[in-house]
Each structure stands twice: as C-alpha cells, then as structure tokens.
Amino acid sequence: DARVTQTPRHKVTEMGQEVTMRCQPILGHNTVFWYRQTMMQGLELLAYFRNRAPLDDSGMPKDRFSAEMPDATLATLKIQPSEPRDSAVYFCASGLAPGNGAFFGQGTRLTVV
Amino acid sequence: AQSVSQHNHHVILSEAASLELGCNYSYGGTVNLFWYVQYPGQHLQLLLKYFSGDPLVKGIKGFEAEFIKSKFSFNLRKPSVQWSDTAEYFCAVSPSGSARQLTFGSGTQLTVLP
Questions:
Q1: What's the pLDDT tens digit per position in A74-109?
Q2: Which residues pair with A90 in a beta bridge?
Q3: Which are the contacts of A38, defined by CB distance < 8 A and separation ≥ 6?
Q4: What are phi and psi of B62, to 5 degrees?
Q5: Is the Cβ pair A101, B34 closer than 8 Å?
Q6: Is the dihedral of CA B97, A85, A32, B41 positive or negative?
Q7: How far is A101 from chain B (nearest CA, A)?
Q8: Is A2 part of the contact surface with chain B (CB cutoff 8 Å)?
Q9: Model confidence over A18-75: pLDDT tens digits?
Q10: What's the rounded Cα separation, in Å, for the pair A106 and A4?
C-alpha cells in the first residue's frame, strides 16, 4: 500500500554534526511537507513544496536548515550544524493539492547531544 | 507501540449540524492526545490537546474533545458546524513524559454542505 517513507527512523548525533533526513513521498503526490514535533511546541511546519518548488519555508531557521526536492521521489531536510535544541521528531507528509489532506510518514526521531 | 484509529473516513454534514469524530487509541501507558486540522491546501494546525487534568478540553474555533480513559477514546465534537469547517481532521497520540513520536490516525475528511 502507498505510504510516505522516511529515513532514518532514529538518529543520534553530536552537536555540530550535519544531519540529513530523507523522505519518499507517495508516488503521484505533488505536495510535500516537513514538520517538527516537540512536546512543548507541538507540530510546527518547517517547509512545504508543491511540484518540487518550495512554497513556504518561513518556519525553518534559515541559518542552519535547508530543504530540497532533488526529484519528485525524494525530499531532504538538512541541518548543519546541528544543535541540542534541534532534538525533535521530524515528520514528512505528502498529499495532492488542494484539499486532499496529507499522509504522514512515521517520522525521524533526532537526538542531538 | 501506540496506534490510533479513526473510524470515520469521510463525514458529510449540513451547516448547523452537530459533529462528533471518533478517535480510539491503544497504548499501555499514559498518553498525550491531540486533534489536528488541515484545511484545503494548507498545512496541519493544532486544534486542541490533552495532557492531563480536566478530560474535557476546549480548542480553537469552538471545538472540544473528551478524553475517556476507560474507553481509550478522545472524540472531537462541535455543536454546530460551519461550511468553513470543511477540512481533514487528524487525531494523534504520543506517550507522556518525554518528546516521543506522535502517531497519527488516518484522518477524517469532513465536508460541510452550505
């Protein structure tokens, strides 16, 4: 069955290291979202793409975060350098715009020590 | 591992009708519970959340939800829906006490007819 696939599921890294998270959206979906989930902030939208073009990345700290879609089957979220406050679960979701909702991946749990 | 079930995949209501969307979860420990809404073409937004205390929680836009521990349920309600409530609604659960992974239900598409 179709699903959004995120890798890795878990990542532990040291402060200052580069982290890359990957997402494979559902085939045919033209909208991809990146969310960050923390207990204090809940779910925050970091960025989203439509037809591979970034539409909104205002929720993302620009100095260290970057999001790209090299092709329609891959979205990446990179943090460089990582900091302990980046520890969170990062969700990718994909959907068909407009109005069809989004299917979420299982998330990448990032711990920066 | 926790899981979340939303039994209603698509709900169609007329304006002013009352709404109740079901959410059941399975997990052996204490949990935090959330309802998110995604309006057409937009990203997910938090409607309300339950961490502890009063099991009846009120959220934005007139929504409320009741946590019934014995039934492992966290149903979303609104006394009178509006056309602007047309959206997809996601229930989510995470174990209490630490920043752990959210598990989402599959979502319920609500269509409100004018």
A1: 999 999 999 999 999 898 988 765 434 567 787 898
A2: A36, A108
A3: A44, A88, A89, B99
A4: 80, 5
A5: no
A6: positive
A7: 6
A8: no
A9: 999 999 999 998 888 898 877 666 667 788 888 898 877 877 888 999 999 999 999 9
A10: 8
Integer Cα distance of A54 and A67 in angstroms: 8
Question: Would you call A36 exposed, middle or buried from its count of C-beta atoms within 10 A (0-12, 13-18, 19+)?
Answer: buried
Min Cα–Cα distance to chain B from A107, Å:
7
3-class SS letters over A19-52: EEEEEECCCCCCEEEEEEEECCCEEEEEEEEECC
Nearest to residue A33, comparing CAs of A44, A47, A23? A47
Determine how many CB atoms are found less than 10 A away from the CB of residue A5: 13
Give the separation between CA A108 and CA B1, rounded to whole angstroms: 15
